[in-house]
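Support request, please re-run this one:
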Amino acid sequence: MQEFIYYSPTGLDFPLSDQIFVTTDNNIIQNQKFLISNSTDVNSELVSQEVDFYIKNSQDNINDKIKNVLKLYELSGVKYDFAQDIPYFQEVSNSLLLITNSKEEYENFVSKIDASDFELYTIDATILKNIDGHIGNLEVTVDNEGKDTVLNVSQVVWFDLAALKSRSGVYGIDSSIIDEVLTILKSNINSSFKYKKFTTYNETICQYNERRVEICSKCEEVCPSVAITKDDKKKKLTFSQIDCVDCGKCVTVCPSGALDNAFMNKTSFYEISKFYTNKHPLIIVSKKDISSFDIELKQDVFPLVIDSEFLDESTLLTLLQLSGSQIAFYSDSTFETTDEVIKMLNDIYQKRFNKDAILVAKNIKELNEVLQKVSFVENSYFNFNQNGLKKREIFSTRLQRIVENNDLGVVTTGNHIHYGTVKVNATNCTLCLSCVGACNVDALIANEADFSLRINPSLCTACGYCEVSCPEKDCLTIVKDEIELQPLWFKENILAKDKLFACVECGKEFATAKAVEKIAAMMAPIFAKVSETKKRTLYCCEDCKAKLMIKQGLLDA
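Re-run finished. Output below.
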């Protein structure tokens, strides 16, 4: 299989790199398979929309165009190499459940189909209790005279346009769109319904998974379909890839980075960002063909087309710093989470560089205006090997480079993107380290060298699980939704400190002094009523405690 091909029936008015096979012959593209192409007419693993878009609109000189077209092919090759969006297939039978509210709705629908079209079942909406599963394997629970009965069907039609969150195989209708929906229903039958895995999930850093209380379920809250559901008893997330609409909201809003885009994960995006050094990145969010876009790409503007708004603060700051430029961002309708991320980064850049980081356009007119304004940001370039680091670690390291030794004030975050820091009343803290065990992003640290509890504020997601886990009263609180743009925010700050307590019998250090003293304060009056020896065991290591108890015959006391 050859790697790169450029196909156009009319050809090109300038040459391309020898690494790219150029042809106008339709027969050639039909008989061979390629890795990366510029056209959906070619049998290829991946189509790069950026190629024709760049060739058509760029104002770069010919030499730069030749180099940049090759870069776009190589960039797409990186996308392909790192992609984890595995395709799957689901068989769909002709079994169909019709949910109606009246006899008229039933008759209207049935009048438009033949008896052979579907294996048709029908129920009244009043007995419907629940719908689970996905196209080809839907489970519909109904009330059958007081008992739950499950109907297994491949597709469902419901005379209710806004009945549920989006679910594959379930179609809300009214009388005006019956014909349109019937076309879809019939096309699905006896076919392999193709879908892809759009997200990956790391449960070890998830801030919902198996926690005693619900701390975070942002991904489930923002999901527009039933692709993400939660079990509040087990504290487990369930993912239905077939129902995922690839909007990217869950990835953007995930505080820890437990969710990532399958097609372009953080490692992939980092490698892709290297192609944009000394260029003005133009991000276009579109699932549609962009070949009709008629805009002027001034010199050094380099496009990147993505299907969804999965770019969080760490990925966008990566591209900002590796390009050394502002980013032009085009989406006809940005999500609230994306808006929050962009606002936060713009606030940071204004404080440090007196420029916005990202210039947003929501139509072609605005895009042309933005592309004229986009510029390089002096002293903003920064690169380091971020592979293997978590989302917050990447952002922290990159943000620290912006702040350096300056105090740039405070930046606030929004409803979906959360940062914060932990405050501890050192007097009440016994250094039990329950908070450290609760933190799965390594923001809270136990330092064994000096027996201290420390916080790296830049890694804190303000989830609140440490606060819930702390057994002491008036001890631990969280300041939420603030980023302090000053050097100490990126360093380990001591929250509480203690020394080890030495066993009064053997001298071995076995616990923190505060912990021993707290237990002793509660138990000493009780133990003293038995004997002074038993009271003394409160200040002993485990070995000496047992020896004293045996020696004095206190094991049953």
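The chain has six domains: 1-47, 54-83+263-383, 90-195, 197-261, 410-497, 502-551. The domain at 90-195 is CATH 3.50.50.60 (FAD/NAD(P)-binding domain).
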